[in-house]
Amino acid sequence: MRPWIRLSTRMVIAACGLAVMLGITVLPVFAQTHAPTDTQAIKNVLNQQVAAWDRGDIGAFMDGYWKSNDLEFVNAAGIFQGWQDVLKRYQHSYPNRAAMGKLMFSGLEIHVLCPDTAYVVGRFRLDREKDHPQGVFTLIFHKFPDGWRIVNDHTTEFPAPR
Predict the structure, then answer these.
(1) Is 94 in contact with 20 (CB distance < 8 Å)?
(2) Rg of the chain's alpha carbons, rounded to an integer?
(3) What is the mean pLDDT of residues 111-128?
(4) pLDDT band for position 3 (50/70/90)?
(5) Residues 74, 97: Cα–Cα separation, whole Å
(6) Is-contact 120 112, C-beta < 8 A?
(7) pLDDT digits (tens, 9 = 90+) for 52-109
(8) In which element (H, E) is residue 127 found?
């Protein structure tokens, strides 16, 4: 075998080894330095939404969503596209403070997939005078220059108990 071929193979093996070592050392550092900050920022968005909901302020609640025609909201009634359509859906479904009730999120699992994408799985419950609707959701978040926003919301309400 020619010496330059062996040297080239050794260089490739060394480069691969270096890449693996960097991956082992750099990725955990990235996860430790960025994920907690991002996780807390996403929790803050959700906490602000709960506070706005409990004040009866659907407009402020919608601040947690991406203000774009590409926003999607999925539930048993269908697929709603665009920030304006999602706002109209909330206004129609919750026309007053009594219909809104008090919102609670629980069982939140926040998964930061990369520096600008995350998803959240959790449960919701509305406490209203006459009922307590509840269910589960998956939210896809994207990090924009002005912060984390929901770009896709898939919410499933459990059937009301008989």
Answers:
(1) no
(2) 22
(3) 97
(4) very low
(5) 23
(6) no
(7) 999 999 999 999 999 999 999 999 999 999 999 999 999 999 999 999 999 999 999 9
(8) strand 117-127
Please give the model's pTM, rounded to 2 decimal places: 0.78
Asked if pLDDT for residue 14 goes beyond 50, the answer is no
Q: What per-residue string of b and e applies to 40-75 under the rule 16 or more CB within 10 Å gives b?
A: ebbeebbeebbebbbeeebeebbebbbeeeebbbbb
Whole-number Å distance between alpha carbons of 135 and 2: 67
**Domain 34-157 CATH assignment equals 3.10.450.50:** yes
| Residue matched to tokens 């907690």 | 36
Helix (H) or strand (E) holding 137: strand 134-144
| Whole-number Cα distances in Å, 82 to 6, 88, 141 | 58, 10, 15
pLDDT confidence of residue 35: 62
DSSP-assigned letter for residue 150: E
